[in-house]
Amino acid sequence: MRIACVGAFVALVRGIAGEAVQAQTPGSPVTVIGPTDLTLAASTQYIVAAEGAVVVGRKIGLTSKAVQEQLGVDQPDLGMLFDDMGYAESATIPMSRLIQPKAEAEVAFVLKEDLVDGPLDAAQCRQAVDYAVAALEIVDSRIADWNIKFGDTVADNGSSALYVLGADHRTLDQVEPIEVEMTMSVNGEKVSSGNGAACLGDPLNALSWLALKAREFGEPLRAGQVILSGALGPMAVVPHGAVVTAEITGLGTVTARFSDTTSSQEGE
């Protein structure tokens, strides 16, 4: 029965995805699975990845109480980062790739060791981190008005669309993730603020949670992967032509620029 549900859910999600991307309009919520079934919803991510997508990292979301309250959920979610999701700060992100995007400022980790064996606690995760870097995650939803339940967002890859990493790399001897302070602006106007403690108490706690869940699902975190550890404060709407900048103490700034059109002919 569980397998049948997964298959049905994947089919429905694919249908919504195809229609939404082509029409640039979001669809209706998908309610095949329970609203809090992380395991079943996450199964759709692994099915999609198994069909040829190249995984370059992972994300944990809904780590901030502010974001949980924005979406009406009460637990973290997770998703995959694919090789076509990362943009350089110098690039212009085409709005044609997006539907109803929002931005989150986060601490990203790049791993130097696999996280497979052992307790996978915060101390072990710290040792596995090569460096930390300021990040903007562009989240999006195929569900109209972001009217999503927990199962919807997980099955929709944790609502993850794109991401941008900053230029400054810092080891964890140079910066303490729990101590960072964040401010984010859109077109020069401050829209969000927060700190490391807002991310499950410490971004390293978030990394530990993700490492344990990834191992549980049979796809542990690997050396070289980019890990987005979750929002440090509320997410903000990204309008056409926006310039979004986040400043995270100890990690510097990261900026994402967006086109002012949704034309399919715009450059990437």
Structure, described:
With 268 residues, this protein is an alpha+beta fold. The protein has 6 helices and 13 strands. Strands 1, 2, 3, 5, 6, 7, 10 and 11 form an 8-stranded mixed beta sheet that branches. Helix 4 crosses helix 6. The longest helix has 22 residues, at 2-23. The termini are far apart.
Mean pLDDT: 82
Q: Which regions have little confidence, pLDDT < 50, spanning 5+ residues? A: 1-23, 28-36
Structural class: alpha+beta
Largest sheet: 8 strands, mixed
User: Distance N terminus to C terminus?
Assistant: 42 Å
Number of DSSP E strands = 13
Question: Would you spell out the secondary-structure blueprint of this structure?
Answer:
Layout lengths: L1 H22 L14 H13 L4 E7 L3 H7 L5 E6 L3 E2 L4 E2 L8 E10 L10 H7 E11 L10 H6 L4 E6 L15 E6 L2 E7 L7 H14 L9 E6 L4 E2 L5 E6 L3 E7 L10
Parallel strand pairs: 1-10, 3-7, 4-13
Antiparallel strand pairs: 1-2, 5-6, 5-10, 5-11, 6-7, 8-9, 8-12, 12-13
Helix pairs in contact: 1-2, 4-6
Features:
268 residues; 6 helices; globular
Summarize the structure.
The chain has six helices and 13 strands. It has 268 residues and is of the alpha+beta class.
